[in-house]
Design a protein that fits this description.
single chain, 329 residues, alpha+beta, 4-stranded parallel beta sheet, 22% helix, 26% strand, binds zinc ion
């Protein structure tokens, strides 16, 4: 623990043949400057041997002290990793040396240094679990038959020309603290429920309307937009780079409202100093962006719960509150 760093100076020292930048704090101590970063990316591309890629990626991450979550499938890679800036950069550079991953579209964000408890590198049927691995078609250009890609600026151009409907491609709970203005939010607890939801007829009035799907970083919409297109939605767009990229471009001065839920230690991300607080505490109704698990140990429901109520004891989701009997571990 050092003192303030207001009048600190930075200098580089050579130590163990590596450059370590140190800060001279006001109390005269030096300590390394940690620059924790989070890298988010995905690539849809045919992978003949995902297990070999898994072993390579795992060793690469271990050698660089990265933690996070990487999922591989015959359709590509979906990764969120965190670590020191220099290490994450080296990871990205090495990953791009593999030709199918050369075009990785990297999304960076600030980390805290303890955003992920561990490293998990797995092979699954799908890199995002829609429960439709046999339907998804992927070639060297990516998902076949997906929605038309829109950059954040393209999106605004389209909105200048016509009325679009935002379609939330995330789990319903993620939208409770942030969403696009007037978005349709499907009632899904997991991505696996999307197919039944879009086949339910509930959205058939949108089949010939311009629909813009969005999700955190874009990966879920790659699949969702293709599933919607093949089910007769004729004008499906997808927000390229997801809310992350939109927030970088327009902050809280566009058509996104609130905080972005993220699946790591940060909990959520804000894009400006004037982010609207959309969440309402399930217990007291106060405005908050804080989310926590249902206190039932078996339940994975995420609830909006303010700080005070979170500290004030167990908070249960509706079904578990109604039953009154928490299930056993
Ligand atoms: Zn509360
Ligand atoms: Zn629950």
């Amino acid at each position: 623990m050092g003192g303030g760093t207001d009048r600190s100076t930075c200098r580089a020292t050579s130590q163990n043949s590596a450059f370590i930048i140190q800060t001279l704090t006001t109390d005269g101590y030096t300590r390394p400057v940690a620059v924790p970063k989070i890298l988010l990316f995905y690539v849809f591309t045919p992978l003949a041997d995902p297990e070999a890629i898994r072993l390579w990626q795992r060793e690469l991450c271990r050698s660089l002290d990265l933690t996070g979550r990487i999922v591989l499938s015959p359709h590509g890679i979906n990764a969120t990793v965190g670590g020191e800036l220099a290490d994450v950069k080296r990871y990205l550079r090495t990953t791009r040396e593999y030709a199918p991953f050369a075009g990785v579209d990297a999304k960076w964000s600030e980390g805290t240094g303890h955003d992920f408890p561990k490293l998990s590198v797995k092979v699954r049927d799908e890199i995002v679990t829609f429960g439709a691995p046999d339907e998804l078609r992927v070639d060297e250009q990516g998902v076949v038959g997906g929605g038309t890609r829109l950059s954040p600026d393209d999106l605004h151009d389209l909105m200048d020309r016509e009325q679009v409907t935002f379609f939330d491609g995330r789990n319903e709970f993620e939208s409770r603290i942030g969403r696009f203005r007037d978005a349709v939010v499907p009632d899904v607890a997991t991505t696996r429920e999307f197919v039944a939801e879009i086949e339910s007829g509930r959205y058939d009035h949108l089949k010939d309307e311009p629909i813009v799907t969005y999700c955190t970083g874009g990966v879920r919409c790659e699949v969702l937009s293709s599933l919607m297109t093949s089910r007769g939605f004729s004008r499906v767009y997808q927000l390229e780079g997801g809310v992350v990229r939109y927030g970088e471009r327009f902050g809280d001065d566009g058509v996104w409202d609130g905080s972005l839920y993220v699946f790591d230690g940060r909990g959520s991300v804000d894009f400006s100093d004037h982010t609207a607080v959309l969440g309402r505490c399930v217990r007291c109704g106060d405005a908050t962006k804080r989310m926590q698990n249902c206190s039932d140990v078996q339940c994975r429901e995420q609830l909006v719960v303010c700080d005070a109520c979170g500290r004030g004891g167990a908070v249960h989701c509706d079904p578990h509150r109604a039953s009154g009997v928490p299930s056993q571990p």
